[in-house]
Specification:
Order of helices and strands: HH
Shape: elongated
Distance between the termini: 36 Å
Number of strands: 0
Radius of gyration: 15 Å
Number of domains: 1
Largest sheet: none
Number of helices: 2
Structural class: mainly alpha
Length: about 45
């Protein structure tokens, strides 16, 4: 799945550098949301 997604994005003309920057930004956002949920649960 991951390789398929990468190929799909690279075929669409997005540079590899931009692809990974967006991927890392998304991962950071999701991790921040995860930490926020944990903090609400455990105070």
């Amino acid at each position: 799945m991951r390789l398929y997604l990468r190929r799909l994005i690279l075929k669409s003309g997005v540079s590899q550098k931009l692809f990974y920057k967006r991927l890392i930004d998304l991962a950071d956002k999701r991790y921040d949301e995860h930490l926020s949920v944990l903090e609400k649960k455990h105070g």
